[in-house]
Specification:
The complex is a heterodimer of chains A (58) and B (246). Chain A is built from 3 helices and no strands. In chain A, helix 2 runs antiparallel to helix 3. The longest helix of chain A is centred in the C-terminal third of the chain and has 20 residues. Chain A is elongated and about 40 Å long. Chain B has 246 residues and is mostly helical. In chain B, 79% of the residues lie in helices and 0% in strands. Chain B is built from 8 helices and no strands. In chain B, helix 1 crosses helix 7. Chains A and B meet through helix 1, helix 2 and helix 3 of A and helix 3, helix 7 and helix 8 of B.
Chain lengths: 58, 246
Amino acid sequence: MKGIYKFVAGNSRVTPVGLAAAVAAAVFLRGRASGASAAVYLAILIGTLVVAALEKPQ
Amino acid sequence: MSGWVVAGTTFLASGLEFVEAATIVMAVGYTQGWRAAFGGALWALAALAAIVLAFGPALVKFVPLPLLKIVIGLFLVLFGYTWLRKAIWRFAGRKATHDENAIFAHEVEELRSQAHERDAQKVGFVTAFNGVLLEGLEVAVIVITFAAVRPDAIGWGVGGAAVAAALVVLAAFLLRKPFARVPENAMGFIVGTMLLSFGTFWSGDGLGIAWWNGEATLLWIVAAYLAAAGLLVALLRAPHVAETPS
């Protein structure tokens, strides 16, 4: 299980959470503000990259 | 989406992974014999081809495309994060760069300590098999995902990966030493950016997001990730930070 997690997520604690948040935001916004959903989705994913890069290198 | 972009991404990903696999295979060749080294490597390549052929068409046939785009896109995003942040750390000096010479020396030392064992040939075969299979597995997954979302791109994806593998094998045969000068980190940086960008675009598409300019938005996504990654390298570059071994 640990090996699979390392293979898929590179042992990051942040990326699965960021990804889940981006998906939730996209699903929430698509019916309400479809124009903004793309920008919000991309912004959350880029924000996740920033936070993941600030994690301790492993 | 241009087939060349798919081919370029799988070419770089495959090249990078097979450079690492070649180091292991060469270490096996020099210590346990080339028969075990080539045997293990060839069986692993056959296993990887079988994985691609078994899962690629099956995914397309049995899973609906929108669901496939979401699942595969999210997988690519996770892979992309792993590749890109590792490259960012290395460019920023926060993680030691991949040293193929050091890895080769370590593998040789480890294999020599097992050379006296009766089943040394078997150990060499298994080491080469595992090395190629594990390094190639991520490439196989990337090729399958490209093929699943865009079946018309399977030839480009497989072609890019196969050309890179062939070039690495040829170079290994000619040079007969580890590839210490391959710009592995720059390759990892590009692959990570492309995986993240494709994954973002496809998963968003599957989730029902209307991208501003259709497929052309992919270029904007690539530019946005490149800008963010470049800024992160500049931000994290600190000479006093201790290096973490790879």
